[in-house]
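Data follows
____________
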Amino acid sequence: MRLTQHVLCAIDDADAGKFDAALMNACIAIDATSKRLFPSERRVRVRYIKCLRHYYWLLEPMIGVGINFSETRFSNVQLGKNKAPDLAEIIYEVFRCSHAHGEEVPAQFSVVQSEGGFSSQLLFGPGNLHIPDCVVWALLSVVVFSKANRLETTAGAYYLSLGGDRYLIRDWWGREDDFKPIAEGQNRVKVILDGLDRFGRPT
């Protein structure tokens, strides 16, 4: 499948409430985007995480929970030897790699449905993290707005939304410079989550 097909399939799946399938397609589209964004980097993990961190300015308002993801470390969970991963590492290690290897996402991690309107919440506790379903749209926004994908084209009325406004995907491929002021206007509250290790981890 082409990158654009993964984007549109992710939207169709999300609209149908198939969030695991939607997230899988979104994660694959990030894979292709990161390869284009950092063509000299051959290590998949490095370029994938680097891509997500590069677009935290976009992921933050699109996920919509008011968190500074650049500086927040989820010290309540551990990924291998990494005792305090950030969101990019969690998305790669837990969601992207699970789907890519045909494995189920571990039960202590999940995508949860947002409840009405534009509200979303992050749920966490000892050894677990559950992220709102709008992470799908956040990842798709990286794919659509990234300059790396400026040559892509799609038709139809598919759109991304932020702050109540809709942005037709067919008109916004690669226009991150135009979208960045819009995203920053919706991203004024950014809280650093600290001390999450006080939740401890399951033994």
Notes: The chain is about 45% helix and 10% strand. The helical segments are 3-15, 19-37, 44-54, 56-63, 87-100, 134-145, 169-172, 176-185. The two ends are 42 Å apart (CA to CA).
